[in-house]
Write a structure and sequence with these properties.
Elements: H1 7-17, E1 22-23, H2 26-31, H3 38-45, E2 56-58, H4 63-76, E3 80-83, E4 100-103, E5 110-114, E6 119-123, H5 128-137, E7 140-141, H6 154-159, H7 167-170, H8 173-176, E8 177-183, E9 189-192, H9 204-208, E10 217-224, E11 226-227, E12 231-239, H10 242-254, E13 261-265, H11 267-273, E14 285-293, H12 295-311, E15 315-317, H13 320-328, H14 334-339, E16 343-352, H15 356-370, E17 375-380, E18 383-384, E19 387-396, H16 401-421, H17 437-444, H18 446-458
Parallel strand pairs: 2-4, 3-4
Antiparallel strand pairs: 1-2, 5-6, 6-10, 7-11, 8-9, 8-10, 12-14, 12-15, 13-14, 13-17, 16-19, 17-19, 18-19
Helix pairs in contact: 1-4, 10-12, 15-16
């Protein structure tokens, strides 16, 4: 959609959303041409784009305007990608064929707080940090606190099936969303009313939470919320080994203790955080635990968890690493390395407890074999009764682009392949987007055919965010070459 080729469409859209809410200038289009996908950042650093520029950027102000824009685009043969704040790191909003970017950030109202049922209804484009602050002012919390909270939208959390830093207590976003409204590819509106539980067939919520804008455009969400805790306590532990730390985390979660935060760091990441703390001289693995709730409940869970840790050889140490993490928990460290020419990325996967030792050892060995001397570190920041997220940081030093892109692609292929070998999933909370397309057939098998059949039924013309989640690209889409 451009002013030169589609003046009738643009005129109709401007009349609908307002002259100032449709952009076709080059600078704006380039800004919307990528999210925070590191591969896209590397491409931009080299003076290129990961895909194409969008055809236009449109900023509707209501669900009805979203529906009307979708209908206009369908009428005139244009494709659409919903866009929040562009914090995704898998290329989920990358245009591959000049799609229209539908910026949802004008849908930014906190509609209601239901204090009886512990629910909040919010428009999908509301900034996550603003949403949490508004809840806090009323004595509530969303329980969903991702590192990207201040640069992401509530709708984005749901679209990529995200996870916050307190997921071990409150769950990931799919455990928090209880209702939603969405616009389907033909412009119809769909509502899943918020109820505690239902038994009326497969979950429509799960069809849209994680769909990354491929099946519909989420415009409104109803989420569970929680009273702000009376107390929060933080503790730093030094473990004798990764095995002791993993065992402690598994025992804590299987004992039905619900830490607000449970983070473990491998020796590489522990060294970065434990400088000057004597306890880590012979116990090289750091853990950070937080407990919250009423004073009595937090104390009981703390005492039970610390007793388990002591049984596994851990000792409690000074809280400086905890305080540093608290102060910096919503900041990203990637940009400084990427701006300095490094090929820095993160890969988060999830696997059962029984698989983690081999998964970690094999991933580390493979990475260092691909590029000896590179940085490879890992931490485990979302723990559940049956397993954990493993979050890996890979950092290649500055090198020629051709070499860096090739090594970066090899690292992804090796680590995601090892994850599947060990029975894990290739994504825990960043979603699939574009960059994980090569691995979804192996993980989902026939399930990918089921998703494609659903996509074809809802969106036979492939109008919404084509080519993501391993689904079929649109005719004429550019091919993204990673290596």
């Amino acid at each position: 959609m451009t002013a030169a080729t589609e003046p009738a469409t643009l005129d109709s859209v401007r009349a609908l959303v307002g002259e100032g809410h449709v952009s076709t200038d080059r600078d704006t289009l380039v800004r919307y041409a990528r999210d925070r996908l590191p591969f896209g950042i590397f491409k931009a650093r080299a003076g290129a784009l990961p895909g194409t520029v969008p055809g236009a950027v449109v900023r509707p102000a209501s669900a009805e305007e979203v529906a009307q824009v979708v209908r206009l685009a369908a009428r005139d043969g244009h494709r659409i990608i919903p866009f929040g704040l562009g914090s995704g790191v898998l290329g989920g909003t990358t245009p591959l064929g000049g799609e229209v970017m539908l910026d949802l950030t004008r849908l930014d109202r906190l509609i209601a707080i239901d204090e009886v049922n512990g629910l909040a209804t919010v428009e999908a484009g509301m900034n996550g940090g603003a949403f949490e602050a508004a809840l806090n002012a009323r004595g509530w919390t969303s329980g969903h606190l991702p590192q990207s909270i201040n640069i992401s939208t509530v709708g984005g959390w749901a679209a990529c099936r995200g996870g916050g830093q307190a997921s071990s207590r409150y769950g990931k976003i799919e455990d928090i969303v209880v209702g939603l409204k969405a616009v389907l590819p033909d412009g119809r509106s769909l509502e899943v009313r918020p109820v505690p539980r239902r038994s009326v067939g497969p979950s429509l919520l799960d069809l849209f939470v994680g769909s990354e804008g491929t099946l519909g455009i989420i415009t409104e969400l109803t989420l569970r919320i929680w009273r702000r805790p009376e107390v929060e306590t933080g503790h730093v532990l030094a473990f004798p080994s990764l095995e002791a730390a993993w065992t402690t985390a598994r025992r804590i979660m299987q004992a039905e203790i619900r830490p607000l935060v449970l983070r473990l760091y491998d020796p590489v990441e522990s060294r970065e955080r434990a400088s000057g703390l004597a306890a880590f001289e012979d116990r090289p693995v750091m853990g950070i635990l937080m407990f919250s709730g009423t004073a009595a409940l937090a104390a009981a869970e703390r005492d039970a968890a610390l007793a388990i840790a002591a049984q596994e050889g851990a000792v409690e140490t000074g809280d400086a690493p905890y305080r540093h993490w608290q102060e910096n928990r919503y900041l990203s460290y990637s940009a400084k390395w990427q701006e300095a020419g490094y090929f820095m990325d993160t890969i988060e996967v999830c696997a059962p407890w029984s698989a983690l030792p081999a998964l970690y050892a094999r991933a580390r060995e493979a990475a260092l074999a691909i590029c000896p001397g590179m940085h490879f570190g890992a931490h485990w920041s979302h723990a559940y009764a049956d397993g954990s997220c493993q979050y890996m940081t890979i950092r290649l030093p500055p090198m020629p682009d051709e070499e860096g892109f090739a090594l970066h692609a090899r690292l992804w292929d090796a680590i995601e392949g090892i994850t599947l070998d060990e029975g894990g999933t290739v994504a825990h909370h960043h979603g699939a987007g574009l960059f994980r397309n090569p691995y979804l057939r192996r993980e989902l098998g026939t399930g990918l055919d089921v998703l494609q059949a659903i996509k074809d039924a809802l969106d036979p013309e492939n109008r919404l965010n084509p080519g993501k989640l391993g689904l079929r690209p649109a005719p004429g889409a550019v091919e993204v070459r990673r290596g």
